[in-house]
Amino acid sequence: MSILVIAEHDNAELKGATLNTIAAAKAIGDDIHVLVAGAGCGAVAEAAAKVDGVAKVILADNVAYEHQLAENVAKLVADLGKNFSHILAPATTTGKNMLPRAAALLDVQPISDIVAVESADTFKRPIYAGNVIATVQSSDAIKVVSVRSTAFDAVAAEGGSAAVESVDIADDAAVSSFVGEELAESDRPELTAAKVVISGGRGMQNGDNFEMLYKLADKLGAAVGASRAAVDAGFVPNDMQVGQTGKIVAPDLYIAVGISGAIQHLAGMKDSKVIVAINKDEEAPIFSVADYGLVADLFDAVPELETKL
Amino acid sequence: MKVLVAVKRVVDYNVKVRPKADGSDVDTANVKMSINPFCEIAVEEAVRLKEKGVVSEIVAVSMGPKQCQEQIRTALALGADRGILVETAEELQPLAVAKCLKAIVEKEEPQMVIMGKQSIDGDNNQTGQMLGALTGMAQGTFASEVVVEDGAVKVTREIDGGLQTVELKLPAVVTTDLRLNEPRYASLPNIMKAKKKPLDTTTPADLGVDITPRTKTLKVEPPAERQAGVKVADVAELVEKLKNEAKVI
Fold it and tell me: Which of A3, A11, A253, A297 makes the best surface tag, with the fewest CB within 10 Å?
């Protein structure tokens, strides 16, 4: 059993979701190789080599992989991956974009977004917005799997001493090119990695009112998220959306403010350890999953909460 | 140019599905079926491109049992020109769907294939990317903006940290995210007109595609239930509970 884990990174830093994915790999077997594909990403490979449990790091440093274009990276992953029994990637937007493409090149039906490893060929994954958990067995020779990072505790970033091997492959399909990106700048922790998440919904009424949540977040070292309703209403940008089609979070503490609790939203946060709901509608479905419910006007409760902390 | 749009028949998003008592599958007997919301956004985008004069013909494809005709008719009522049903009673996994779509792409030669980023039943988020791999087409997944110009398409994509824009040579595959557009409602005259639009039926075998499933669902079960907790009287009690009972702050 040899497992290829695709590293998530920005050419400078190894992203935390990689550590959760390696944890899932460890539940399958112990010959774990990590592929770092990018451009000028030597430091990422060095970081990956130090991760606990990694046997080898494969570094593909080429301008064709700089922006993680799926057309190029999938070809590389398929070429390298055919010598492995498993190929794993984090179920981030980068992983979701690239991995199925690599799987199809290998004629494999991938398994998306696993939350548990039952055996080397059998995995659990949520379907129907998390209303059902399916146990799925693959009969393909190579198992291609994306991993929901919140379902696996990260392995230690230090403790390993794997060798880094460079491969000189430049798969440039030349059908796509990177134009640009607008990334949200924030000093707060990343939503999917934060210990505390505070999310606002339609009840926030407008984008300016999210300032209250940012203040509270800064006091708690929290990340700020939103329901789809708040994003669709234009209060906040889409990368803040928590839910079935947005980000999946599972922090120690999740505070839902002015969120009614549609099943699509619950799918993104119901694995949080402790859930607090603040909503003036005591019938709101969010209260059915909340450990602590406060029926109150959020415009009174949130500032009061901030001063009492 | 010609656009192919894929539409999937799924359990309506308002229905809360449950596993069958024997855990063999989800219980979809007598539940309302609809067009997958992301597929509806794909149809709408194609129709808008046609209204702008960029697209000349929209072909809507669906796969599955005969009843998928309903979802094709919905697409036709929204503005697609004709439909193709790949009919089968067998289970279709995303790889098989991508292979069937590839066969149709080879026949129809569209300049763009627009489809939903995922279906809300399987939540796989795979088929568009796999179609890209099988045809060699570039892919613009999770699209929030699509601009066609000079033989290429610029796709703005919703990614974890924000937005990314890529330029793809045509032909290309685009998968839709939620904020690409807001689909219109089909008008009654258009629903009537849709009934007269052509709808061809084929099968995976006719397309030369082996749809044998590669994965097997051993069981389905409800997720661990969360118990509703307690209501607190005020902010002071909430803070006290979080500090002393939950010990999370």
Answer: A297
Domains and CATH numbers, chain A: 2-166 (3.40.50.620), 191-308 (3.40.50.1220)
Give a yes or no: residue B118 inside a domain: yes
Asked whether residue B249 is domain-assigned, the answer is no
Q: Which domain holds residue B180?
A: 2-244
pLDDT in tens, chain A (309 residues): 899 999 999 999 999 999 999 999 999 999 999 999 999 999 999 999 999 999 999 999 999 999 999 999 999 999 999 999 999 999 999 999 999 999 999 999 999 999 999 999 999 999 999 999 999 999 999 999 999 999 999 999 999 999 999 999 999 999 999 999 999 888 899 899 899 999 999 999 999 999 999 999 999 999 999 999 999 999 999 999 999 889 999 999 999 999 999 999 999 999 999 999 999 999 999 999 999 999 999 999 999 999 999
Q: Chain A neighbours among B 76-105 (CB < 8 Å)?
A: 93-95, 98
How many domains are contained in chain B?
A: 1
DSSP state of A1: -
CATH number at residue B153: 3.40.50.620
Q: Give A 53-92 residues with CB within 8 A of chain B.
A: 67, 69-71, 74, 92
Sign, CA dihedral A193-A196-A202-A206, equals negative
| Residue A237 to residue B248, Cβ atoms within 8 A | no
Residues of B in contact with A238 (CB under 8 A): 144, 158, 163, 177-179
Q: Return d(Cα A131, Cα A134) in angstroms, integer.
A: 10
Q: Residue B213 in 3-state DSSP?
A: coil
Q: Cα–chain-centroid distance for residue A47?
A: 19
